[in-house]
Write a structure and sequence with these properties.
Blueprint lengths: L9 H75 L4
């Protein structure tokens, strides 16, 4: 009542060799795909870094415009106070 082993025939050996070849091909394809994905990731990382720099520059520009606007309002209020509220 032991386990019977199947005899190895040329057909089973050939199938096993084909399966091993298919496995090797699949591994090679997956490795190539991983390399391509890594290249895309590197390009995206560069693009994101450039976008962050642009966003920071835009933020600095907005802060500058707000400061200039505040100065213009302050000067306008001071000039208006002297011109129209001169305390006669």
């Amino acid at each position: 009542m032991g386990t019977r082993l199947r005899p190895m025939t040329a057909l089973t050996i050939n199938k096993e060799a084909e399966m091993a070849d298919d496995h090797d091909v699949e591994i090679a394809l997956l490795q190539k795909e991983v390399e391509q994905l890594n290249e895309k990731l590197d390009k995206l990382s560069t693009s994101v870094e450039e976008l962050v720099v642009a966003w920071q520059s835009a933020g600095a520009l907005v802060a500058f415009v707000k400061t200039v606007a505040a100065l213009v309002v302050a000067v306008t209020v001071i000039v208006g106070a002297f011109k129209f509220g001169g305390g006669k």
